[in-house]
Amino acid sequence: MVHTRFIAGVHRYNTSKRTTRCDRFNGVRNAVVTIKRPISIPFAGVGARLPAFFPSVSSIKTNFSPLDYIEVLMASGTQQFLISAYDISEPSEDDQMAIAIRSALDGGRIVLLDSGNYESYWRRDSNWTQTRFWQVLKAHDWDVAFSFDKFCMGQEASQNCAKQIADSYIEDQLQRPGCALLPIVHGSTEDLPVLCREVASLVNPMLIAVPERELGEGILARLDTLQRIRQELNHLGAYYPLHLLGTGNPWSILLYTAAGADTFDGLEWCQTVVDPQTAILLHFQQRELIQRQLIPPGTHSYDESTMLHNLLFYRQWMQELQTATASKSLRGYIRTRLAAPVASRVETVLHEH
Fold this sequence. Notes:
The chain is of the alpha/beta class. The chain has helices at 19-24, 66-76, 96-106, 117-122, 130-137, 154-158, 161-175, 192-203, 219-234, 250-259, 268-271, 302-326, 330-337, 340-350; strands spanning 4-7, 10-13, 40-43, 46-49, 52-57, 80-84, 110-114, 144-146, 180-182, 208-211, 242-245, 263-266, 272-275, 280-283. An 8-stranded parallel sheet has the order 9-8-7-6-5-12-11-10. A two-stranded antiparallel ribbon has the order 1-2. Strand 3 (40-43) and strand 4 form a beta hairpin. Mean pLDDT is 89; it is low at 1-29.
């Protein structure tokens, strides 16, 4: 599958591994390289504007079934969401989940298939394997999916980690050639920037993903790591969009976008309630305390109203970030949203790169 690349701001096709371009920058690794940021990414033949948020659907730490959440997402008009391969690995008797997924795909929605690692970890299911992931990967006409998680164990293994991730990614891609596979990169905070660059150089993906939790401790440290990842990727001479796994906090999305991330997913839309005036998350049962409610009262059940309220907020929030990003006014937007002392600390980190 040929992926669209953005080389030095020029929109053209390129399927090279770019190892020579990587070598070219070996002597200037600390140099700041700026690549024009695209305003959209061609997911599933549909241009998704950047930055983009994918509401996550999961059976873990949630109150309803994945099918219930998909129905809410569909009813809200949400055009993109993420679903776990683990949660759909066992077909139900009436196959309602398969019908819902087929309806979403046929309706032109972007359904991003996740690897299932999150659910299998919390369920302590050691039987969730790459082979089982392949069964789900081949069960539907997925347009885009994350690759199966590859963890490099021990010092000897970590020395060749990028190749291990690339090899596992290629195995996944061979199982579903028509699907755009997106590699997930795991590693220590110190190793992630170079590891992301090496993986991108080996497999030339449409997008590359890292878990937010592996970026470091605290938002400022994570911003610093994220910027170092962006710089390493830019050293390849092309713009590789970067996805953060498990990032649904509106403030985090704003700051991480400024640091170089492009797409996000999270469960906050169905676990909490957001105050549109402050973009602060509250307990799911505290919606009545919010002055500005986006869904008229009495039109849905409490749970449905809260989730629809959240989804409408995220839609508006991402549109604001898309406009600010396209106009290169994102850092100014941060200053209008954050208290001056906090904005100053954030800007200090952002200006270091």
